[in-house]
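Input (structure):
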C-alpha cells in the first residue's frame, strides 16, 4: 500500500510511519516540521528507512501542495493538527485554519485525487466538551463517573467547548459527512491521551510525556487542581494496531465515529497515582507545586471503547505501568533530544 501521513513527523505520525515502513509499505510523510521534536523524529525515520521513506515539506493549509502530494495514496492518516486548547484560545484563527480548513483540504484532496483511499481522521475526546452535567464522585482518592461504568460513549451529545474543540469537531463532522455525501471511505477516530516513545509532551499537551520528561530531567512540575483527575491512557502501539484494523475494515466503519482510548481498565489519576509510579521509576520522590484548576478541566474523562471492540475486534493490550516504564526508559536514553526546552 501507499500510505500518506499528514503530520507524519509528529509523535503518532512517526510511530505510524515506522510501523508501516517496517511492514514493507510505501510511506509519504507530509509535514511542515513546525512542532518541537519533529525534525528529530524525521531524522530518526530517515536513518531507519532511508530512501524507502518519502518526505514532503508541506502544510495542510496549502491545498495545491497537498493535492499534488496525496495523489495515488491507498491510505490517508490525517494526523496533522494544532493540538493545544490553550493555544487555540490565544490564537483561534490559526487553530481554525490548521484544524478546520486543513481537514477540509485533506478531504477535498482525497475526493479529487485518491477517492478510494481509506481515510483515518485523528479526532479527539474534546468533541464531547466539558460534560458539566455528568455526575462525578470521589472514590479511593480519585474521581469517577457516578453513572458511566463503561465511560463516555460515541452517542454522547457533542459540545465543542473551546476554539480547539470547535476546530477539531468541525473536522470530525466533515469527515463523517464526506463519507455520507461523497462516498469517501473515511472514519473519525476520537482519541484519548495517547502516549509513548518519541512524544515531546509539554505542559498544555501530551501530559503523560511531559511529566515523564520533567521527572527524568529534574524539571519543575505543576499540578493544576488536586491531582485526583482521572484519564484513560492509550499506548501508541495499541493505537496503531487500531489503525491497522480500521483500514482493513474501512467499508464497514466508514462514515462513523469510534472512540479510541484506554477505556476503564487503563486509567490513571494524574498525580495521586501517576506520581508514585514516577517516583518508583526514578528512585526518588518528585516535588511538585499545585496551581488553581484550569477552566474547563474535566474531573474525569474515560472513553467507552466497546464500539471499537465490537466493530474492530480491538482491545488495548499495554497496561499503563508497563507503557509508562517503556516511555521512561526511552526518555532516559534520549534525554539529549530535550535540550531545546531548557
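Output (sequence):
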Amino acid at each position: 500500500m501507499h500510505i500518506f501521513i499528514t503530520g507524519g513527523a509528529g509523535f503518532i505520525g512517526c510511530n505510524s510511519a515506522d510501523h508501516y515502513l517496517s511492514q514493507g509499505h510505501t510511506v509519504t510523510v507530509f509535514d511542515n516540521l513546525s512542532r518541537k521534536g519533529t525534525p528529530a523524529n524525521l531524522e530518526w525515520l530517515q536513518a531507519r528507512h532511508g530512501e524507502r521513506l518519502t518526505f514532503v515539506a508541506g502544510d495542510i493549509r496549502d491545498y495545491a501542495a497537498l493535492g499534488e502530494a496525496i495523489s495515488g495514496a491507498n491510505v490517508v492518516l490525517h494526523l496533522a493538527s494544532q493540538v493545544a486548547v490553550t493555544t487555540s484560545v490565544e490564537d483561534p484563527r490559526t487553530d481554525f485554519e490548521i484544524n478546520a480548513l486543513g481537514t477540509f483540504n485533506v478531504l477535498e484532496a482525497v475526493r479529487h485525487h485518491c477517492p478510494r483511499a481509506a481515510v483515518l481522521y485523528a479526532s479527539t475526546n474534546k468533541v464531547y466538551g466539558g460534560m458539566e452535567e455528568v455526575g462525578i464522585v470521589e472514590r479511593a482518592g480519585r474521581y469517577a463517573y457516578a453513572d458511566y461504568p463503561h465511560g463516555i460513549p460515541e452517542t454522547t451529545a457533542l459540545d465543542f467547548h473551546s476554539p480547539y474543540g470547535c476546530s477539531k469537531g468541525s473536522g470530525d463532522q466533515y469527515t463523517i459527512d464526506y463519507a455520507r455525501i461523497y462516498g469517501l471511505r473515511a472514519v473519525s477516530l476520537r482519541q484519548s491521551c495517547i502516549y509513548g516513545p518519541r512524544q515531546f509532551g509539554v505542559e498544555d499537551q501530551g501530559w503523560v510525556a511531559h511529566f515523564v520528561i520533567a521527572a527524568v530531567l529534574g524539571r519543575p512540575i505543576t499540578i493544576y487542581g488536586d491531582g485526583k483527575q482521572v484519564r484513560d491512557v492509550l499506548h501508541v502501539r495499541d493505537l496503531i494496531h487500531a489503525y491497522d484494523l480500521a483500514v482493513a475494515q474501512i467499508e464497514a466503519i466508514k462514515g462513523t465515529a469510534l472512540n479510541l482510548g484506554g477505556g476503564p481498565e487503563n486509567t490513571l489519576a494524574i498525580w495521586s497515582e501517576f506520581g508514585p509510579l514516577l517516583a518508583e521509576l526514578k528512585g526518588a520522590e518528585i516535588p511538585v507545586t499545585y496551581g488553581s484548576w484550569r477552566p474547563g478541566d474535566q474531573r474525569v474523562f474515560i472513553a467507552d471503547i466497546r464500539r471499537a471492540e465490537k466493530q474492530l475486534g480491538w482491545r488495548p493490550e499495554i497496561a499503563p505501568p508497563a507503557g509508562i516504564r517503556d516511555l521512561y526508559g526511552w526518555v532516559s536514553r534520549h534525554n539529549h533530544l530535550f535540550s531545546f526546552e531548557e
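Notes: The longest helix spans residues 92-113. The chain is about 40% helix and 20% strand.
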